[in-house]
Amino acid sequence: MPDSPYDLIVIGAGPVGENVADRAVQGGLTVAIVESELVGGECSYWACMPSKTLLRSGNALRAAQRVPGAREAITGTLDVQAVLNRRNEVVADWNDAGQASWLDSAGITLVRGHGRLDGERRVVVTAEDGTTTTLTATHAVALSTGTAALLPDIPGLADAKPWTSREATSAQSVPKRLAILGGGVVGSEMATAYASFGTAVTVIARGGLLGGNEPFAGELVADALRELGADLRLGRSPERIERDGDTVTITLDDGETIEADEILVATGRVPRTMELGLETVGLPAGDWLGVDDTLRVHGADGEPIDWLYAVGDINHRALLTHQGKYQARAAGDVIAARALRKPVHDEPWGAHVATADHEAVPQVTFTDPEVASVGLTAAAAEKAGYRTRVVDYEIGNVSGAYLTAEGYTGTARMVVDEDRKAVIGVTFVGQDVADLLHSATIAVVGQVPIDRLWHAVPSYPAISEVWLRLLEGYGRPE
Ligand SMILES: Cc1cc2nc3c(=O)[nH]c(=O)nc-3n(C[C@H](O)[C@H](O)[C@H](O)COP(=O)(O)OP(=O)(O)OC[C@H]3O[C@@H](n4cnc5c(N)ncnc54)[C@H](O)[C@@H]3O)c2cc1C
Ligand SMILES: NC(=O)c1ccc[n+]([C@@H]2O[C@H](COP(=O)([O-])OP(=O)(O)OC[C@H]3O[C@@H](n4cnc5c(N)ncnc54)[C@H](O)[C@@H]3O)[C@@H](O)[C@H]2O)c1
Fold it and tell me: Where is each Pyridine nucleotide-disulphide oxidoreductase dimerisation domain found (predicted)?
């Protein structure tokens, strides 16, 4: 390990920290990155990658079952062990040697251990054997320590040995009965995966599914989950949870009880800022870290701290890998620019800001149907004060969807800002819409005028023809 000081110290080598470090090195800085668990972070080992692997096989099987000819060729059921084996391979058996060697090839120094701030531009790293190393940064420290699962304060829950997303994505066998608390993204995706495995899934959600999306998204996913055999208790909350040996009993607010072998808690995330030494720089421990658009942390006085950055989940802007990596590119580049006294482009949509965080965040939920959205929902746009027009279309009516699956079910919505005549939000719900989303992201970020979109011709017969139907629904400006 080269001697400290480094130009930049990054704490947390998840997807976001790795990218901050890489951009800063490419910008000409020396960088050390501190990691207490696995290089690659939550996304690689307990979140995006294993969860999508667990979902893919069931989604592929159902896709084939929806096509005559292919359907008849299916002679068996999902091979759950093969799915789990593939998941093990995708996460490299929870071994980060590959990612650690990438850091090395990128010229980033890895320091293994738990990092915490120790005053301005100083980081103390405690290794597994208890030894400590003090690192100093000439220019900046970037915090990218991500999140952990939130455990709500429900009587008995903590003693019931609940699963979090970590256990759900790393299980080596599947339970016969799984209760899932929370109807957000993790709850809906894991309900889909485990129901595909033949597990008896019960989802307990205090609202509907996938709140924050267009309402039809949660409704279509709920219908599909019921069809898969899941039991949905929507608008319900647990009052008490007890484990007796192998059985967990959940008592709901109306007195009904549900029994399961495992209970998965999927009720959101908390920032990993508790043991980060934030109090040594005048910030409270345990909170999300507010940032400006160049990702500098807001100090106690509300002004940005010039040497401290918070990037990715930890700043609570958008808890998504791709959006965190987008922030990381801006942060790594601006840290290098500031260190080397080069021009800083911090105007909206400039090279050194994460402007898209505000109203242009794309997300795909890999349920079946998939939910792909970018920008504002109709409700969010109205709340933000936009004068909008909303166009809906049943995706199953386009030829591409009809060919993709018999009885294709799905809905698209386009939200148009009537003052700018530009698209500010799009949602697609349906099979195979994930990769369609980027067209919508480009339209939203590019603020492409509706009349120009008429010249973006979707290929026939592809599902993307839904764009033409949405435009026709809106009407061509004269
Ligand atoms: C089940 C699940 C599925 C998901 N699926 C998707 C998906 O499909 N697509 C998507 O875009 N997003 C998905 N997400 C969200 C995604 O995982 C996060 O947005 C992403 O991991 C955030 O990256 P990060 O680098 O900010 O944090 P993390 O990935 O959490 O990485 C933080 C790293 O910091 C380390 N660390 C923490 N504290 C310290 C410390 N004090 N010292 C040293 N190291 C420390 C941790 O060990 C970890 O390696 C999913 C989340 C979950 C829970
Ligand atoms: N495909 C993807 O992009 C993907 C997949 C998984 C997770 N993620 C990200 O990870 C983050 C975490 O996902 P998540 O599903 O844990 O959070 P979430 O915020 O999506 O959903 C949490 C759900 O739990 C409910 N809830 C919260 N407290 C509760 C309580 N005390 N009792 C009952 N219900 C309660 C909420 O109402 C909500 O429906 C999300 O922000 C998401 O963006 C993304």
Answer: 361-467
